[in-house]
Amino acid sequence: MEILACPIDKHFPLELVELTTKGEIISEGTIFCSKCSRYYPIIEEIPIMLPDELRDKKQDIEFLNKHKSTLPEKIVTKGVPWHL
Questions:
Q1: Where does residue 4 fall: left (phi above 0), alpha (psi -120 to 50 degrees), or beta otherwise?
Q2: Which long-range contacts (CB under 8 A, 24 or more apart) does 62-69 make?
Q3: According to the model, what pLDDT value does residue 48 have?
Q4: Max Cα–Cα distance, the chain, nearest Å
Q5: How far apart are the C-alpha atoms of 56 and 52, rounded to whole Å?
């Protein structure tokens, strides 16, 4: 996390939301940019930090629906590029 910046606006530092972990490894979670309100899901230990046009909308919406009760409201209802 110390070296990650938002790929869109280069903002640093980013916020980490841990949902499930395996020891010290985050299995599921999000990385959030407070400047542009973009979230980047962490799925199966892999952060998906792609530009909007390369992201899989279906995968992101499924992720939000699966974790809507545990993710911060700013991600679920106002996150970019998609929200619920």
A1: beta
A2: 67/19, 67/28
A3: 96
A4: 33
A5: 9
Q: Amino acid letter at 38?
A: R
Would you say residue 44 has pLDDT above 90?
yes
- The string of pLDDT tens digits covering residues 25-35 is 999 999 999 99
- Distance (Å, rounded) from C-alpha 79 to C-alpha 76? 6
Of 24, 55, 5, whose CA–CA distance to 79 is shortest? 55
Continuous segment of H or E residues that includes residue 3: none
For residue 6, count other CB atoms closer than 10 A to its CB.
19
User: What is residue 58's three-state secondary structure?
Assistant: helix
Indicate if the pLDDT at residue 82 is higher than 90. yes
- The CA R_g of the chain, rounded to the nearest whole Å, is 12
Q: Tell me, what DSSP letter sits at residue 14?
A: P
Q: Flag whether pLDDT at 69 surpasses 90.
A: yes
